[in-house]
Write a structure and sequence with these properties.
317 residues; alpha/beta; Arc Repressor Mutant, subunit A; D-Maltodextrin-Binding Protein, domain 2; 3 domains; eight-stranded mixed β-sheet; 11 helices; 14 strands; 43% helix; globular
């Protein structure tokens, strides 16, 4: 199958418009429509349905997008960096990820990094921002995705902001189309992260802005424990959708938007001044993280808003 047609398909899926995709790809709309038609004929299925605002993926189209976006990107990276010094790197790259990103980011990010660094091995540490920063300062983690940290020893560049939602168990009655006021949210029995950054900070700041009291029933430093408590109906949580999308899709959790407060979790790439990596290598790792995150957001896999657009340089912060 022509990989160019798959690239065209993925761009149309991202833009949800053949016209916009054609403009970004620099080809005529009729030519792009023809390439899409040929792809659909090869596969024997319709990939899009037309709407008033553009196009939407069919069920078959969504399956194709999910199964090809990552491998196609990894193939392009492998071809791009074959024969470069990066492709010959033989060492362990130590990455840090927050628990909330594990399901959405781990596999595609490692796939892309493995394509750029085919001789490297990888170590992934999962934890809160506090723990990941501590590990970076100890030299146990090279580069991490973390919440903002007021620490001069850490270079940090923001990548995205995730909206936070009220999450409840399957019997909670929460509705994705019916927002809940922030005053009502803080009156619920809540399970909150024990860490001082991320969701906990966002909740505290929102409570201060709304001039309401903020309390909780349960605290934990484990995201799986938090989701288990919510699923059991013992408490509600405030989480980004990336942290619980699988449970929501399985019907084990429900969610609703929160009104009256702008609740977001911000994430960015971080490293320390003592980073023991060559500059070219560290910059490429940061760029790969940024590009993979951007691809996931554009595809709709990660519900978030991108912030950073400049390349990341840990030597400049």
């Amino acid at each position: 199958m022509d990989t160019h047609r798959l690239k065209y398909f993925l761009r149309i899926a991202e833009e949800r418009s053949i016209t916009r995709a054609a403009g970004l790809l620099g080809i005529a709309q009729p030519a792009l429509s023809r390439q899409l038609q040929l792809l659909e004929e090869d596969l024997g299925v319709a990939l899009f349905t037309r709407t008033r605002r553009g196009v939407e993926l069919t069920e078959a189209g969504e399956r194709l997008r999910a199964s090809t976006a990552g491998p196609l990107r990894q193939l392009e990276l492998a071809v791009q960096y074959a024969g470069t010094p990066l492709a010959r790197l033989d060492r362990t790259l130590r990455l840090g990820l927050p628990e909330s990103t594990v399901d959405v980011l781990t596999a595609p990010l490692l796939g892309s990094l493995a394509a750029v660094f085919p001789e490297a091995t990888f170590s992934v540490t999962v934890g809160s921002t506090d723990h990941l920063v501590e590990d970076m300062l100890k030299g146990a983690v090279d580069i991490a995705l973390v919440n903002p940290v007021p620490d001069d020893r850490v270079f940090y560049r923001e990548l995205l902001a995730e909206r936070l939602f009220l999450v409840g168990g399957p019997e909670s009655g929460l509705d994705a189309t019916c927002a809940v006021g922030f005053g009502d949210v803080v009156g619920l029995p809540l399970v909150v992260p024990r860490t001082s950054s991320g969701v906990g900070t966002a909740l505290q700041n929102a409570a201060l802005r709304a001039k309401v009291q903020f309390g909780h029933r349960i605290t934990t430093d484990s995201l799986p424990a938090m989701k288990n408590v919510i699923e059991a109906g013992l408490a509600y949580g405030v989480l980004p959708l990336s942290a619980c999308r699988r449970e929501i899709d399985d019907g084990r959790l429900r969610f609703a938007p929160i009104e009256d407060a702008t609740l977001t979790q911000r994430l960015g790439v971080a490293a320390t001044a003592q980073l023991d990596l060559p500059r070219e290598l560290s910059v490429k790792i940061g760029d790969t993280i940024r590009e993979e995150v951007a691809a996931l957001v554009r595809s709709g896999t990660w519900t978030a808003d991108l912030i950073a657009t400049r390349p990341w340089n840990p030597m400049k912060g």
